[in-house]
Specification:
It is built from eight helices and six strands. With 212 residues, the chain is an alpha+beta fold. It folds into two domains: 123 residues, Serine Threonine Protein Phosphatase 5, Tetratricopeptide repeat (Alpha Horseshoe), CATH 1.25.40.10; 64 residues, no CATH class. The strands form two sheets. Strands 2-1-6 form a three-stranded mixed sheet. Strands 3-4-5 form a three-stranded antiparallel sheet. A hairpin with a 2-residue loop joins β3 and β4. α2 packs antiparallel against α3, α4 packs across α5 and α5 runs antiparallel to α6. It is elongated, with a radius of gyration of 22 Å. Bound molecules: zinc ion. Zinc ion binds next to loops.
Length: 212
Amino acid sequence: MSEKDGSDLESVYTVGMAYMTGSGRPLDYREGIKYLQKAADGGFVPAIRDLAVAYLNGLGVPPNAEKAYPLMKTASDALDPNAMYHLALMYETGAGVERDLYEALRLMAYSAGMNFTGAAEEADRIEGEIDGERKRRLFSRPILKLEISDVDIEAVCCKSMLDAAVAKDVYVDETYMGPMLLTEDENGDEAAITECPFCKTKAVRVRRDKKY
Ligand SMILES: [Zn+2]
C-alpha cells in the first residue's frame, strides 16, 4: 500500500479521530495525534485541520495557536469549510494571527456559503461586532478629514458625515474601479462619490487601521 494513496491516508485519519474522540478506540489524545500527524504529513486536508484544532485546544500537544495557524490556513486555502470556520474565529480573537475582523467575516461568510453548520449565525454575529467597533472608532476620532481604507470609512470630516457613516447611508465597497466611497442617489441607485456630499471635503485613501 502506498502512503500517498488518498484512501489510505483517510483510514489513518479515521483511526486518529477514533482515538481523539474515544469512539471505537479508547480515548488517547497522544496516540490520536500520531495518526493525525501522519495523515497530515501526507497532505490529507481533514487531518491537517484537526491537527490544527488539537493545537488550538491543547489536546495531546501543548496548546499553541502559532502552530495551529499555518495548518488551519492550509486547510482553509484547500476550501475546507470547517477549517474556514475555525480560521475565521482565530482572526476574530487574534489567536496565532493578527486580529482582523474583516478577514474573520470574509472567511465565515465563505464557510456559510458552503452551508457549514452554524457559520451563518457566526457571520451575523461578527458583522454586528464590526458595526460596534466601527462606531466606536468613528466616534473616537477627531472630525477633521474624510479617510477611507480598502474596506471602510476610517475617519470623517463633519458631523453630517459621521451620522451618514454610522447609519451606513455612505459606505466603502468594492467596485470595478477598486474600493470606492458609495451612497445612494435620489433614484436609489448606488453611486460612487469622491468627496463628502455635505461639506465637500475630498476623500483620501489611508491604510486600514486593524487596531480596533
Ligand atoms: Zn463632510
